[in-house]
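Format notes (please read before filing issues)

Several people have asked whether sequences and structure tokens are stored in separate files. They are not. Every record keeps both together, in the order shown below: the sequence lines, then the token lines. Line labels are part of the format and must not be stripped during preprocessing.
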Amino acid sequence: MSGSLTLALRTAQSGLLVNQSALDAVAQNVANVNSPDYSRKIVNMEQRVVAGTGAGVQLSQVTRAVDEGLLKSLRLELSAFNQHDAQSSYFSRLQDLFGAPGDNTSIAHIMTEFGKSMEALTLAPDQSLEQGEFVRQAKEVANKLTQMSSTVQELRVQADTEIAAVTSTINTLASELSDINNKIIQNSSTSADVTDLRDKRDAKLDELAGYIDISYFYRGDGDVVVFTRAGRTLVDNSSPTISHLPASTAASTTTHAEGDFNGIYIGIETAANDITDEVRDGKLKGLIDLRDGTLADLQSQLDEFAAELRDAVNLIHNQGSGFPGSATMSGTRAFINTGTAKTVPIAGEQTITMGNNSDTRITLFDSTGNQHTTTTVQAIMASASYGSGASAANGPWNIAEVAATMQDWLRQNGTANATVAVSSTTGKLNINLNSTTYNIALRDEVNTAGTVPAPVGSTAANATIQFDANGDGTADETVSGFSNFFGLNDLFVDDVVDNIWETGVMSTSYASTAATLTIYNGTTSTNVTVNNGDSLTTIAASINAATAAGVTATIIPDGSGQRLRISSQNGNAFTVTQAAANTFISDTSLHSADVRVSEQIRVREDIISSPSLVTRGAIQWDANKGASGEYFLSKGDNTLIKSMSQMFATTNTFDAAGGLSSTSMTFVSRSTSILTNNATLAELNDSQRTYQEDLSNSLKTKSDTFRGVNLDEEMSNLILFEQGYNAAARVISVIQAMFDSLERVIR
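Then the structure lines:
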């Protein structure tokens, strides 16, 4: 009998202890009813059996009310939400800084005002007020473009800095998860309750999912292994460190593809461990997309726009001059091998040839705009009296011979101290009359009779300049206008060096035709073979294999396509040409890159100082002046400023850039498109952010409802466990009384 009473006592004791644990769990649940990330604890009981005989009750385990499948879905959506959320503040800043098309500070409004200033100058070309306003508006356009470019690069640097901060946070979370893993394993081995540790780990996983896309699984010992969806390990027994060194500055040429932005490395900093292009979601993805996608695309749009504006305006501005001509002319085209002045160029010297019966008239004018003397480029180049002697009538001429010949003619015709030379530092052609008596102006002409040089009074039309960029005897580029070719009277200038070449935006599936490319640096030519069907990536590899060229080729993402970019390794200028009959350059629009133009575009300094230097009119011919007709300049001539105004108001062909397609539209419309595209992206991001936020909140509500504490349910459990505890205590009390009775009988 005593043995049965002892067993009963132990059985009742087990009920007492288990119900006590259950009451503790209820107390924990009630106490944490408002605690975030807390999951309701469930006490699971089971019958205790000893030697095949029931021996009361025991605590099986304390579990959590958690839906793991729902949590996985929630974490996926949290990653997507944070990707868009990370971009919201950047889009807001772009909207604030760039403005809407109708805002007075927007590029679209400023371009409109620039057009109005052209129209006003057309009506009053001789008025200094209108001249000054035109220059002021041109400066506003250039300043706005440089400001926008600067803002884009500042935001890219900030995004890169945030990327570094995110990687640091990921490392911290990974370390904390590893520490929690160890505690769970240690406590589980002693059958201790680890549910609170699991709650804490879930909270860290939720936080980590906000920064980077994650996948995970649980091992049998209770720890969790976390890795990216691309398969890179983040948390394991030995977790690798994520590192990223942020950039201190950025420019339009700064890209991750070229290695200018450091990679995001997991473990050792090698190319194989760079996960920049592998990240799929989370705040990290949002920042990468901003730095390398959205903002880089916007920069591409600005550069292409600035280059088109520069080229279109300068083409017309170079067709004439301010009144009464210019005392100095500074070219903007830099040559890499001007040669030594001589009548017959040798291999390697860059040369020009005049085609299509075109010629360029050089005229000196007095202060009233009347002709002092005139000639043509072909006439003096073919004369034995100037330069090194008589050259071929229409070329080819090396650049040094052109300069020497023009200088001799100017010195022999009224400007004895004139200098015409190519700068040894910049490679640009400069003309300085060093005279207060006369001024120079250029006019392109075409002789319809087909004779050269063009006789006086020939039809005004842009000269055709064929440029042999690598001195191999074959023309590589055709440019409209002699002054425009040299950039002798540009309105918009920049300091962009021809040390970066790139294609237009190409499809990722592009396949090349066969070609032989020549990369020439002024002294050395390096040939690169392009095979039929080569992709841009294959072509880049072929260029990089030609180490003697001293260039690096990279594939640069741009909008929905890509560009092949070729950059000089030492920063010096070079040219890229192709064999005769090859079409690779035209097929891909390979050209000296527009990148950097919006950063550097500005109005020429002497025009800012003297707005009267703005081209309004062209050199005119009057057959009734003098003995047999003369050229003259008129202060009230509006011929060219009117042409510029008409050009500005009509459509211009813009190349694809930064997600904007190739199209024909006005400059104002294109500037509006840039703003509209940016606003559309901002609205799309905000819409996606809102959608992901609603979806995440919905999933979180479902998860919280499932895992959260229900006070009514806990009160019911409290009564149930209390009654169980009281009943067990009552059994113990009865057994104690029975033991007391047994003790009295024995006495």
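For reference, the curators noted about this record: The longest strand covers residues 53-64. The chain is about 45% helix and 20% strand.
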